[in-house]
Design goal:
The protein is of the alpha+beta class. The chain folds into two domains: about 1-45, no CATH class; about 45-150, Metalloenzyme, LuxS/M16 peptidase-like (Cytochrome Bc1 Complex, Chain A, domain 1, 2-Layer Sandwich), CATH 3.30.830. Helix content is about 20%, strand content about 25%.
C-alpha cells in the first residue's frame, strides 16, 4: 500500500475574504500538512455538498515521448484509493447516495470534483469525509491502469 501523503495538523489561514455584500456564504482558507491550500465554502441554502480540486498539471506537461500522461493520471485517480480500493468503488459509493464525480484534463491543469445531495449526507456513512477524500494512495500491483500501461512498455 502507498504511504500517507501527510502528517501534522491542518493550519487555519483565514476566515476573512473580500466578497460581495449580498454573499451570505461563509469562507475559510486552510493549508493541509502537504501544503495544499483549501478553500471551504459553507452555503446553508445549497442542496449539495461538494469538493473540487484543480491540479496545476495538464497535457502541456506531458513528456514528448509519452503523450497523454496527464489524462492517464486523471483516470488512474478513479481506479481505486486507499479507502475505496476497488476499481470505480468511489464512484459507486457516491452514486448509491445520490452523488457523482468526474474530472477533466486541460492543457495546463487537471480538475477533479465530486458531490452528494445534502439530504443524503446525513444518511450515508462518512459522507462529508467521503466527498473530501480523494487519496491516490494505491497498491501498484492491483491498479488496473498499471496493467494497461505495462502493455505499452
Amino acid at each position: 500500500m502507498g504511504e500517507a501523503l501527510h502528517s501534522g495538523p491542518i493550519e487555519h489561514l483565514s476566515n476573512k475574504m473580500e466578497k460581495p455584500l449580498l454573499d451570505d456564504r461563509l469562507y475559510r482558507v486552510m493549508e493541509l500538512p502537504n501544503h495544499l491550500k483549501v478553500l471551504l465554502i459553507h452555503d446553508p441554502d445549497n442542496d449539495k455538498t461538494a469538493a473540487a480540486m484543480d491540479v496545476n498539471v495538464g497535457s502541456f506537461s506531458d513528456p514528448d515521448d509519452v503523450p497523454g500522461t496527464a489524462h492517464a493520471v486523471e483516470h488512474f485517480c478513479f481506479m481505486g484509493t486507499k479507502k475505496y480500493p476497488g476499481e470505480n468503488e468511489y464512484s459507486t459509493y457516491l452514486t448509491k447516495y445520490g452523488g457523482n464525480s468526474n474530472a477533466y484534463t486541460a492543457s495546463t491543469s487537471t480538475d477533479y470534483y465530486s458531490e452528494l445531495s445534502a439530504s443524503s449526507t446525513s444518511n450515508s456513512p462518512g459522507s462529508s469525509a467521503t466527498v473530501k477524500q480523494f487519496n491516490v494512495s494505491i497498491s501498484k500491483g492491483k491498479a488496473p491502469l498499471y496493467g494497461a500501461l505495462d502493455c505499452f512498455s
